[in-house]
Specification:
Layout lengths: L2 E3 L9 H7 L8 E3 L9 H4 L5 H10 L9 H12 L10 E5 L4 E5 L9 H21 L11 E6 L3 H10 L5 E8 L5 H8 L6 E6 L3 H13 L1 H6 L2 E2 L6 H7 L1 H12 L7 E6 L4 H12 L5 E6 L4 H8 L1 E3 L21 H13 L5 H22 L1 E3 L2 H10 L1 E4 L2 H12 L14 H12 L1 H8 L5 E6 L7 H8 L27 E3 L3 H11 L3
Parallel strand pairs: 4-14, 5-6, 5-8, 6-7, 7-15, 9-10, 9-14, 10-13
Antiparallel strand pairs: 1-2, 3-4, 11-12
Helix pairs in contact: 3-4, 3-11, 4-5, 5-6, 5-10, 6-7, 10-12, 14-15, 14-16, 17-18, 17-20
């Protein structure tokens, strides 16, 4: 399996090259040359697999055994998920029997966020590739292969990346977050990790500003090569690949729970478009999925695209909401989805290669238009195709608060379970309720199962949870619900560098901390 850039100027990359490089030299994102086929009997043979066993099956489709022997891949996967506190890794919990509504809990990793699923794996991948490169040096005096990870976070990616990479040999990590725009718990999780290879940077700006700095640093060829830059954001293909697995896990969990040929609608809280893209790839592989719903908050650039065909930055910029990990102006991974639209609907070449090349040119133009004018528009054919692949909905702040309150308020119900939602999960749960009639009409049946992806433990967003509950539950106290790792976290020493929204300032700081 080889990989190419969405922008067409870089191709023929191995899995290792795609993972270690992160972002293609032409500014595009890596995608597989083809989407492989699942085994014809996977619905029966994979039914009783554990999460790690499913991971091995799915990932092996995209990773050649000549690159990572199957025994090594199994070891990497097993090590990655040994850090999770739930034996099912991503368990499924039913909270409403009448609506057949389930929560896919993705927060049982070291930092209690869905990012752990991918970043524990990615950290071990980096370590595997670096050790192999360094062990194959011709002479012990030859320079060591090293990696400088530069990433941006709206909250959860940073902590998950840091916990996945702290203490790793020959890896330096620089994580930028928007100052005062992540939750106190999220900041503390990052800044209390004092390992020498970890560096936190608070940027005076938004997440999009942080993300722009990351992309600009990768665009500086001399800097990128000199410091061996690597990416941990969801622009890194390995993250998307790892996340496809829990869509399979959800399907087979429902089968084992008694659902025969389940018809599943997934509601995925969406910021940078990585999580929903993983579902898109799972469906393209052949997993039976009735619908994938892009679930957005007031930062609804994706929702507006599905309504109008225009991908356009909001005039007001990034809005602060109760679900800060989704407070994003431009979703980086949307470019991957757009490549498939361009290839299927916009390219007119007679040969496969001509269409691939044309798709790259189209994506380059769309991304250039976005950079220069703040928007681009797809054709009616592309919009129609996009709507066939995905649905979308948006949720207000008030609806988010109300949904948290609604499910915490449950008592003496034979159909509902009392459940504390985090504000991101609440976005998906709200949409699962208000979109039922619309989806039933589109699908032609109403007896579908709703699965909402729960992206973080509610205790990571205490302010939003308390805002939702205190008026009706003044006695509510989050402390008994805190994971053990959070107890006393604000009393620990924190280390963080505060920098302006300036690429040169960040580059100078990185160069002051790395010795290669």
């Amino acid at each position: 399996m080889l990989y190419r850039s969405t922008r067409g100027k870089a191709s023929g990359f191995t899995f290792e090259e795609a993972v270690m490089t992160g972002l293609a030299s032409d500014g595009g994102l890596f995608i597989p040359n083809e989407i492989p086929k699942l085994p014809a009997d996977f619905l029966t043979t994979w039914k009783d697999y554990t999460f790690s066993e499913l991971s091995l099956q799915v990932l092996s489709l995209f990773i050649s055994e000549s690159e990572i022997p199957r025994s090594d891949l199994k070891r990497i996967i097993d090590a990655s998920y040994s850090t999770f506190t739930n034996k099912d890794i991503t368990p499924l919990v039913q909270i409403d029997k009448e609506k057949d509504l389930w929560i896919l809990e993705l927060f049982h990793g070291p930092t209690f966020a869905f990012k752990d699923v991918a970043l524990q794996f990615l950290g071990n991948l980096f370590e595997f590739f670096l050790k192999r490169k360094n062990s194959s040096r011709k002479s012990p005096t030859d320079p060591l292969h090293r990696l400088t990870i530069v990433g941006a976070t709206s909250g959860d990616t940073g902590g998950a990346a840091i916990y996945g990479l702290k203490g790793k040999e020959n890896v330096s990590v620089f994580i930028m977050h928007p100052n005062n725009r992540v939750s106190p718990i999220q900041k503390a999780q990052m800044t209390t990790v004092l390992d020498a290879n970890i560096h936190n940077i608070a940027i005076e700006g938004t997440f999009d500003d942080c993300q722009d700095i990351v992309k600009a640093l990768f665009g500086r060829e001399d800097f990128r090569v000199k410091h061996s830059l690597g990416a941990i954001n969801s622009i890194n293909w390995a993250r998307i690949l790892a996340q496809t697995v829990y869509y399979f896990q959800a399907y087979f969990t429902l089968v084992r729970a008694g659902h025969v040929d389940p018809k599943i609608v997934f509601f995925t809280p969406t910021g940078n478009f990585g999580d929903i893209l993983a579902g898109y790839y799972a469906a393209k592989l052949g997993l039976p999925v009735s619908r994938l719903v892009v679930s957005t908050n007031s930062n609804d650039i994706i929702y507006r695209f599905f309504k109008t065909g225009f991908y356009q930055k909001g005039a007001a910029g990034v809005l602060a909401t109760p679900s800060p990990a989704m407070d994003i102006l431009v979703s980086s991974n949307f470019e991957r989805f757009c490549w498939y639209l361009a290839y299927q609907c916009e390219a007119t070449g007679k040969t496969e290669q001509e269409r691939i090349d044309q798709a790259g040119h189209i994506i380059t133009k769309w991304m250039d238009d976005l950079k220069t004018t703040g928007k681009f528009q797809v054709s009616p054919a592309s919009l129609e195709m996009a709507r066939k692949e995905l649905d979308s909905g948006t949720t207000s702040d008030e609806d988010t608060y109300q949904t948290i309150n609604e499910y915490y308020s449950v008592s003496d119900s034979s159909t509902k379970v009392k459940y504390l939602l985090d504000p991101h999960t609440a976005v998906g749960v709200h949409l699962s309720d208000i979109m039922r009639s619309e989806l039933a009409s589109d699908l032609g049946y109403s007896n579908y199962t709703s699965v909402c992806l729960s992206t973080a433990h509610p205790s990571k967003f205490v302010e939003a949870v308390e805002h939702s509950l205190k008026p009706d539950f003044p006695e509510f106290d989050i402390n008994p619900l805190l994971p053990e790792q959070f107890v006393g976290i604000f009393n620990k020493t924190q280390r963080c560098e505060y920098l302006p929204n300036d690429i040169d300032a960040v580059a100078k700081f990185i160069e002051s901390k790395v010795d290669y």
